[in-house]
């Protein structure tokens, strides 16, 4: 009976911790988006037009980088911010999106944007495969979900 009580307590703690971490992650993302929107509004009011410096683009990626017999592809979205790029042979910073869609704000604010400004770098943000708009037409079918693996994601980003 004591072991069962301890086990129940541990399971409840585990479930509660996961819920708390998801809530923290969601709130942090919401706070960052709110901060980004406020900065964008401030820049727009001061006649800086930061969104005009952001370009959206698409590249065609192989669905499977490891199977040469599979010729299926998917469109992968990216954003470029050239506002801080001082030299064409200067640094390029790559921001790889996480488990969600990318938006223009992702190349306008945040630590990576601050670093790009400090180093005169081109800032490129790549949307993670199978998230946002970077999904192949049949991407969410069960047989395609194997292509979400880390190895395929990293190969597509290099």
Automatic annotation (TrEMBL):
One GO MF term attached to the UniProt entry: dipeptidyl-peptidase activity
Assigned keywords, A-Z: Glycoprotein, Hydrolase, Protease, Signal
Pfam families, per database record: Peptidase_S28
InterPro entries xref list: AB_hydrolase_fold, Peptidase_S28
GO biological process terms held by the UniProt record: proteolysis
Domain of life: Eukaryota
Family annotation (Gene3D superfamilies): alpha/beta hydrolase
GO cellular component, one term: endosome
Family membership noted in the UniProt record: Belongs to the peptidase S28 family.
Official protein name in the record: Uncharacterized protein
Organism annotation: Oreochromis niloticus
